[in-house]
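Table S2 (continued). Query chain:
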Amino acid sequence: MQTLFDFLVCIIATTIGGISGVGGGVIIKPVMDATSGLPVATISFLSGCTVLAMTITSMVRSIGGELKVEPRRGTLLAIGGAVGGIVGKELFELVRSAGGAMVSVAQQVLMIALTLGVLAYTLNRTRIRTLDVKNGAACLVIGLVLGVLSSFLGIGGGPINLAVLFYFFSMDSKTAALNSLYIILFSQGASFLNTVVRNTVPQFEWTVLAAMVAGGVLGGTIGRSFSRRMDNRAVDRLFFWLLLVITGISVYNLVRCFH
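Corresponding output:
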């Protein structure tokens, strides 16, 4: 029953993630924290694999569409994200070695802070003057920071990607969503390879991984189909309500860490 529940959560999360560009792990991770009873390292790994499967599916399905990843800036962000994915994974292992409970608390606190920050930005977005960063080094650094955050949190992107792309690159919602998925693809791919190479893959049940990855592939397929039919305003509304849900779940999980 739990495996079926995880499968359904992954489909819903990655469908929303594929539309909005948050990846899906930002929903999968906190929901599994609250319901699965699995160790935080296992949840992060399963969530990361699911998001990786979803982003591969989404990027393949975006080929030939009207929206395109920016070849130069998007790729520089993705390369920075790949390096950040490795750094974030190392940071996660470092904090985890200091104590299992500590890493969970750190993840929840950081998630709440980032989500509230993005929510505040979203509410005031029309009054904030955006930038149009073109410097290559700046793109790499921004991608690096995004990769570190997504890998450490085990969410594969999250709302912070969208806010950064809105502000630093003046992208509209749908363009930012596609570029965000591109960054997530690189950062999660690098994080996954680092985990395998360093032999730090946590224990997990293969049936659970298979169900979650299948959910990610289906969600990526459904998400891209919906995205083509939605305008920027509809994506913005979905993103706003998603921020509220993520904040609520993260607060609940933080409270559970102390009980």
